[in-house]
Design a protein that fits this description.
- It is a single chain.
- This protein has about 180 residues and is mainly alpha-helical.
- The protein folds into two domains: about 70 residues, no CATH class; about 100 residues, Butyryl-CoA Dehydrogenase, subunit A, domain 3.
- About 50% of the residues lie in helices and about 10% in strands.
- It is built from five helices and four strands; from the N terminus they run E-E-H-E-E-H-H-H-H.
- Strand 3 and strand 4 form a beta hairpin.
- The longest helix is centred in the middle third of the chain and has 29 residues.
- The chain starts with a strand and ends in a 6-residue tail after the last helix.
Amino acid sequence: MASLTYRTAGESHGKAMLALVEGMPAGVAVDLDLINAELRRRQGGYGRGGRQKIETDAADILSGVHLGKTIGSHQLIQDLLVKCLGNITASLGMVVRVSEMLDAGEQRDEHSALAKAYATSRMRETVAWAREAMGGNGIVLEHEAARFFADAEALYSYEGTREMNTLIVGRAVTGIAAFV
């Protein structure tokens, strides 16, 4: 029988504490409101320093629960992570190859344009999947995914836009300049 384990990180009076629970079976009801009500009840206790009277901690569930029940697996998250890793690996391979071509004196504009168009498109897709893997927390600024999403949009535009780079590659492939 699988065991239920947990790990913690952070400090009790710091910005956050994290608890990672592993081995939780699927379908266990989790009521965040009940957890936070119990936490508030305990905060009203007594102590020597009175700190419990000023703390307003609250629990938040970052993953592993959907519609109030544990999902019991990471299959959906693993799928997103595999797709992210595939995009990152392919983009890195293309950029390294263009760099090798530059060092060898073989690189042309269309090589860089293809790498930029491909890598920035895959980057947008990858940060979207990463945001999706975080669920609702993916759009909360403090969890960083939203910042990476905005950064990806800036790089996508800054690198000459995908459309401009595809026109450069298209001219090399067809011999016809479609620039307006």
